[in-house]
Amino acid sequence: MRSSFRLGRIGGVVVGLNVSVLVIVVILVAGLSLGQFPQTFPGYPTVAYVLAGVGAAVLFMASLLAHELAHALVAQRNGIEVPRITLWLLGGVAELRNEPRTPGADLRIAVVGPVTSFVCAVVFGALALVTGAVPLVAGMFGYLAAVNVLLAVFNLIPAAPLDGGRVLRAALWSRWGDRVRAAVTAARAGRVFGYVLIALGFLQVVSGLGFQGLWLVLIGLFLVNAASAEEQQAQLGATLHGVLVGEVMSARPVTASPDETVAGLIDRLVMSRRLSTYPLVAADGRFLGLVTLNRLRQVRPEARETTRLADIACPPDQVPKAVPDEPLLGLLPRMNGAADGRAVVLGPSGQLLGLLTPSDISRAIQTAGLHHHDPYPHPRGADLAVPPQRLPEPEPKPGERAQRRTEV
Ligand SMILES: [Zn+2]
C-alpha cells in the first residue's frame, strides 16, 4: 500500500495515509452528520452535527491507527522490523519486513490488534457514559465504541489476511509443526470467506441495500486477492527454503567499464550476448553500478556516442547487495523494493562475484526440487500436493535460453 501523505514517525515506524482514506472519511462524515446523528439526536444546529461527524471520523481513524501501532510495536518487540503503517480505504496495513519465527510470536502480533480495538471500545464507552448529559456527544462516543467492537470482532474471523487468520495460522503451525501448511490453510480460509462476502454483498445489492452490498463486495474482492497472494507466497517460501544466493546467482557476469559509452557497449556486447543486465566494475573489481537494457533504451540514438554508462547506471547504493551464503528468501523482499529488480553478490572486499536477475529467481523456483538436499524435511501433506519439479516448464522467451547459457 503506497502512502500518499506522511503523517510522521511513531516508535521508528513511518505513519502514512493513502489517498483512498479520504473516501472513507467523506462517507463517514456525510453519513453521520447528515443522516444518523440528526435522526437519532434531533434539535441541534447543523454545525453541531458536522462537528460530531468530523470528530467521529477523526477518532475512528485514530483508533484504527492504535490497532495498527499495537501490531507494529509487538512485531518490533519480537525482532521484526516494521518500516511503515498506512491507513487506506478498507482499514490499515502494518508492513512487516519478515515473518514471525515462532507460532507464539505470530499469535502475539496478531491478537494484540483486536485487543487494542476492544480497549478503545471500552474507553469510548466510558466517555459515552461520562458525557451522557449531552446526548449528541455521548452518541458520538457510543458510535465509536460500537465500531471498535465491530472492528475487533470482524478482524478475529479466522481468515487470512485478517488477524483471526493469523491466529488460525499460529494455532495450526503450533499443532502441525509446519508453518507453510498452516499458512496455506489460513490463506484458503481467507479466500473462502472473501467469496462468502462477495456473495452476501450481491444478495444485498439485489435486495435493495445497494451501497452496503457494494462495500461487502469490495472487502470480499480484497480478501480473495490478498489471500491468494499469501498462499502463493507461502508456497514460494516452501519451494525456496534453504536455497542460498550463491546457488542460484549468475556467477562471473559479463561486466562493463563505467567510462565506456552506450554506443560502445551496444556494439561490443548487447547485440551479440543478449544479456539484460551489465554490472559496471572498476579496474580493481569494485562494483560501481548496474546498467539494464531498459536504461540503455532510454538513451536517444544521437546521444549514444557521448553518454557514458556511469551516467545512466543505477548507482551502487540503490542496488540490493548479498553474499553467497545468505538465504535467497531473505534477499527477495529487498529485490522487490529495488529500482531495477536485480541484486549483486559481492565478496568480502566488495568485489563483484555474481548477479541475481528475475530470470535467475524463476529458474531457482523451477529447479528447487532438483537440489540434492531436500530443502523441506517435513511431510508436506495434501495441501502441497504439487511438488515444484512437476510444474510445467514454461516456454523460454526468445533469447532467454541464450541468456542463461552466457550468464552462468
Ligand atoms: Zn489487525
UniProtKB/TrEMBL annotation:
<dbReference type="GO" id="GO:0006508">
    <property type="term" value="P:proteolysis"/>
</dbReference>
<dbReference type="InterPro" id="IPR046342">
    <property type="entry name" value="CBS_dom_sf"/>
</dbReference>
<feature type="domain" description="CBS">
    <location>
        <begin position="249"/>
        <end position="306"/>
    </location>
</feature>
<keyword id="KW-0645">Protease</keyword>
<feature type="compositionally biased region" description="Basic and acidic residues">
    <location>
        <begin position="392"/>
        <end position="408"/>
    </location>
</feature>
<protein>
    <recommendedName>
        <fullName>Zinc metalloprotease</fullName>
    </recommendedName>
</protein>
<feature type="binding site">
    <location>
        <position position="163"/>
    </location>
    <ligand>
        <name>Zn(2+)</name>
    </ligand>
</feature>
<comment type="similarity">
    <text>Belongs to the peptidase M50B family.</text>
</comment>
<keyword id="KW-0479">Metal-binding</keyword>
<dbReference type="Pfam" id="PF00571">
    <property type="entry name" value="CBS"/>
</dbReference>
<dbReference type="GO" id="GO:0008237">
    <property type="term" value="F:metallopeptidase activity"/>
</dbReference>
<feature type="active site">
    <location>
        <position position="68"/>
    </location>
</feature>
<keyword id="KW-0378">Hydrolase</keyword>
<dbReference type="InterPro" id="IPR000644">
    <property type="entry name" value="CBS_dom"/>
</dbReference>
<keyword id="KW-0812">Transmembrane</keyword>
<keyword id="KW-0129">CBS domain</keyword>
<keyword id="KW-1003">Cell membrane</keyword>
<feature type="transmembrane region" description="Helical">
    <location>
        <begin position="46"/>
        <end position="67"/>
    </location>
</feature>
<feature type="binding site">
    <location>
        <position position="67"/>
    </location>
    <ligand>
        <name>Zn(2+)</name>
    </ligand>
</feature>
<keyword id="KW-0677">Repeat</keyword>
<keyword id="KW-0862">Zinc</keyword>
<keyword id="KW-1133">Transmembrane helix</keyword>
<feature type="compositionally biased region" description="Basic and acidic residues">
    <location>
        <begin position="371"/>
        <end position="381"/>
    </location>
</feature>
<feature type="transmembrane region" description="Helical">
    <location>
        <begin position="136"/>
        <end position="159"/>
    </location>
</feature>
<dbReference type="GO" id="GO:0005886">
    <property type="term" value="C:plasma membrane"/>
</dbReference>
<keyword id="KW-0472">Membrane</keyword>
<feature type="transmembrane region" description="Helical">
    <location>
        <begin position="107"/>
        <end position="130"/>
    </location>
</feature>
<feature type="transmembrane region" description="Helical">
    <location>
        <begin position="12"/>
        <end position="34"/>
    </location>
</feature>
<dbReference type="Pfam" id="PF02163">
    <property type="entry name" value="Peptidase_M50"/>
</dbReference>
<feature type="region of interest" description="Disordered">
    <location>
        <begin position="370"/>
        <end position="408"/>
    </location>
</feature>
<feature type="binding site">
    <location>
        <position position="71"/>
    </location>
    <ligand>
        <name>Zn(2+)</name>
    </ligand>
</feature>
<keyword id="KW-0482">Metalloprotease</keyword>
<dbReference type="GO" id="GO:0046872">
    <property type="term" value="F:metal ion binding"/>
</dbReference>
<dbReference type="InterPro" id="IPR008915">
    <property type="entry name" value="Peptidase_M50"/>
</dbReference>
<dbReference type="InterPro" id="IPR016483">
    <property type="entry name" value="UCP006404_Pept_M50_CBS"/>
</dbReference>
